[in-house]
Amino acid sequence: MAPATLVGRLRRFPVSVAVTVAAAALVVSARMAHAEPDFPHHPPVACLALVAVVLTTVLAERSLGSLRTLVIGTAAPTLAILATLLTVTIGSALGEAHAEFAVGQPLFAPSVVAAALLGAASATMPVQRRWRTRTALWTVVLTLVLFAGHGSDLARALATLLGTVAGVVVARRASSPEPRTTRDPVSPRTVVVSVLIALGAGTLVTPVVPDPDGVLSPFADAMSDRAVLVVGLLLLCAAWLVQRGRRSGIVLATGVLLTLTAVLADVFFIEPMQDGDVQWQGLGLDAIEWQVTLLGAWLVPAAVLLAVVALRGRLVRARFHSAGTGRDDLVEMLRGGDAGTLGHMGTWRGNATWTHPGGLGAVAYRVRGEVALTVSDPACAAADRPEVVAAFTAFCERNGWVPAFTSVHEPVRTILVADGWTALPVGVESVLDVTTFDLRGKKRQDLRTASNRADREGLRDEWTTFAALDDGRRAEVEAICTRWASDRRLPEMGFTLGGFRELDDPDVRLMLAVTADEHVTAVTSWLPVYEHGVLTGWTLDVMRRGEDGMPGVMEFLIARTALRAREAGLTTISLSGTPLAAHAGARSLVVRGSLLLARVLEPVYGFRSLQRFKEKFGARHEPLWLIVPTPLHVPRVARALASAYVPGLRPKHLWALRQAHRAAAVERATVPSSRGVRS
Hints:
The protein is α+β, with helices and mostly antiparallel strands and 679 residues long. 55% of the residues lie in helices and 13% in strands. It has helices spanning 3-12, 14-29, 43-64, 66-93, 97-102, 110-121, 127-147, 151-173, 188-205, 218-221, 225-243, 247-275, 285-310, 312-315, 327-336, 385-399, 410-417, 445-456, 471-487, 553-567, 589-605, 607-614, 634-645, 652-670; strands at 352-355, 361-368, 371-374, 379-380, 402-408, 422-433, 460-464, 509-514, 520-531, 534-545, 572-579, 620-628.
């Protein structure tokens, strides 16, 4: 980046620059080493709080502007501290125990500013990201209020509230109507998980915080330090399992909460009752408040226990992985709706089908590692697409799956990204407009050469179906397809990449290269593409060449298919997607990673060679996307994709990949010629 450009960007965010410089100066001078009252003897916590201030300032300034960030970042914490001071003063004058304890405590902490700014910035986020951010923020804030109970914790909570309100006011003045969300902003599972995290984290924090005075701080007084550690970790583990929809999470949470309720009730209620220490007459305000606090100490986990038991049916994933329909019904929806050029892949074996309760559409998907991988776009009308996407997402939520919309096109990406989802480029589809396609021009020289050579050698194209082939032809087609797969050093890929068994489909067409002596030398297969009940084109799937196949036979078959489609009145043919191909103009870290992975797999699968081959036809490029709820889901979804595409992948194949790279290097050294198309 040029220095002038960097200076220009820094001038656009003066508040962020000033806060960063101030935070760095404070860290260097060590004056803020004990700035967080909850953790006065933990300087790293103070440093993390300063980092949080810098990051939230940058986020707020980018979304709200410099002036609003400055006003909210100073006004919200100031008002929160003043309100806390007023509350503590009045409460202590009335004899309220918590207020008396908070007198003289420091009320300011860097995290107060960070919480206010994050609450404000959340108002400008897409709906799902906004609610996820607020849920996480309030879980942390309320956990510290309920368990630590210091004056700074109350100030932080009030600053969060004021910052959130200010952000909402600012966002509403400049907002347009929000898009339809893909699921409920806060589901019962989210609420239960947040409460379990709060109880678990609060239990672990209480022994660390000096002089905890929160209303739930007596938790730690009823147990040994080892028991506190075990209970806190078990509650966090239960929250993780419930988030994944596991029944074991419900069982674990129920067991821990039941035990915790029994222990706390015995220590704080049953034993005092038996000893005659519980009385309500002749007591001052602080004594009554303390007894109410002890009563609540065991009523809170009891209430959470009842909620977990009552909602268990909505927290555990469904027993059945599919909702829905047979292949014939899906085919009808594909024909009547608009599922894009890759929609027919959803009919393949191994995929399940979900249908909208109102019959608006369907989604083909495959579950791997509790991730629901969709097979390209939903099969529905364009107007119904947001509602179908929302209903499918809710279906995945009920099953405890992470929805991952795989190899989808721009319309689906637009819907989900507007709702806060994360979109990652995973490939490029080459789509050919057959209404203007011909073999003229310099750019089509390779296609003309292949066509002319086929005519000279007596090679013809045959448009047919697998069912129409006689036994001899079927054997030849199978031999060509299986030979290609057996020659690979790694297992043949699947999921959205078809093979021999996907040819046996009455809706799929084969374009064969047949010699003068009726011998098949190359095979391509084509999937139908429908829009609103009308066949509009074909999508290339299988592309295999026999050992004696003519050089250029694939160019010949694809060109003949395009000409046939034009004569039939169709509009497009798709050369299908090229996995890991870079989007035009994209330079993100993810794109660079995809290109690196493509280079690694090139000797085996030939993705880069395949993309160069498709360039010969002058097709337009349409990006394909993988869309996941949050960036945190990317590693999990990546593992699911690897399992779906290459289910037979084993560690031994890494050695085979290394050998393939060595062989490719030797070939480049001995025969310095460009690699051809994957055949």
